[in-house]
């Protein structure tokens, strides 16, 4: 799996077109295999990838990052989206969660 990063070097939008297209259409891309919702927080981040909810809290003063990960049952997905991401769905979500490996 290739990891993508961003720098502070200014770029035109067309710089990202090819990679964006690949990530949205390649059958091996995480973005075509998993439903993804993520949110940066003041102390870390939250992510819902498929049915796996992750909450990471940075604790630099202790030299650690605290990871809390759990699988969410279907009936709790909408509640997690509402409470943790402030996302209210108009229709029932059917998360994509094909078996793929990924790294947080």
UniProtKB/TrEMBL annotation:
Pfam families, alphabetized: Acetyltransf_2
Coiled-coil zones: none
UniProt-recorded Gene Ontology molecular function terms: arylamine N-acetyltransferase activity
Keywords: Acyltransferase, Transferase
Family the UniProt entry places it in: Belongs to the arylamine N-acetyltransferase family.
Keyword Acyltransferase recorded: yes
The enzyme's E.C. designation: 2.3.1.5
Protein name: arylamine N-acetyltransferase
Organism listed in the record: Lates japonicus
